[in-house]
Amino acid sequence: MGRQFISTAMAERNPYDVLGVGKNASDGEIKRAFRKKARQYHPDRNQGDAASEAKFKEVQSAYDSISTPESRREHDQQEQMRNMFGGGRGGRGGMGGGFPGMGGQPRGQPQRPAQQPKAATINVGLDLSTEDAMGGGQFEISFNRFKKEGNSMETKRTTVNLRLEPGATHGTTKTLRGQGHDHPEGQRGDVVVTVRISMGEMCRWEGNQLVQDVPVPYSVLVMGGKVSVRLPSGKVGKLSVAANTEVGDRRRMSGAGYNGGDLTLEFSLIPVEALSDEQRSALETLRDLGL
Length: 291
Hints:
By secondary structure, this protein is of the alpha+beta class. It has two domains: 5-88 and 118-197, Urease metallochaperone UreE, N-terminal domain (HSP40/DNAj peptide-binding domain, Sandwich); 203-288, Urease metallochaperone UreE, N-terminal domain (HSP40/DNAj peptide-binding domain). The chain is built from seven helices and twelve strands. It has helices at 15-19, 27-41, 50-66, 69-85, 130-135, 218-223, 277-288, and strands spanning 5-6, 122-128, 137-149, 152-164, 173-176, 191-197, 203-206, 209-216, 225-230, 236-241, 250-253, 263-269. It has a four-stranded mixed sheet. It has a four-stranded mixed sheet with strand order 7-8-12-11. The longest helix is centred in the N-terminal third of the chain and has 17 residues, at 50-66. The protein is flat. The termini are far apart.
């Protein structure tokens, strides 16, 4: 019913950093960021530029790492394991004096019997469509955890159920206490689930605020006019753009966002992939006139 995935990493540069998105970005935000970067560094637009070609390959590789729920889950899982064991040691492991990231007592330090060590937290992202988020219900979440087996720590695939009330908000966290990693000498850790709601490629979240990109032709930005806008609800309408609007200007629409919340519209310039002969001639005329 639900879709789900775990948190963070890779041996190369982190794909979230390459694409310029946060680890809790929705699928739509990731796709939008990729297309923007790919357009910027595409070889057809940067012919003969080796640096741009290398950057384009890096962007493509980063997107491939987290472009689907399955690839994103695998990437985030590997990063978390690497972070816990300082470079990728996973699976079977000895049960010495504490595991990295598991709260073990450093050697040579006096023992403090008051508090039992606890395993590190597993961070999980639960990716939902607007329909799933609005409807709520029971969602399956799968992740890898370390399970104590005799004198070893084994990697175990675990699936748990999480119930969400209808109208869950983006960024909401739920803690599943004691359902994470085993600790070789202490308490089992927790699982923290973060809800990520995808609102489409043109939308992104800024905290609890939903922001939608509205591409506008240069002529409309300067002279004013109307542009067609599809709202998150699916409704399509004409939006008036005032003369001398600048890229980055915003307008707020009450009740047009997720679950009846506000929607912030942010104006951007429509990217031009190629010019027709008529467009090029018109632009040359405008350039000659000082515009």
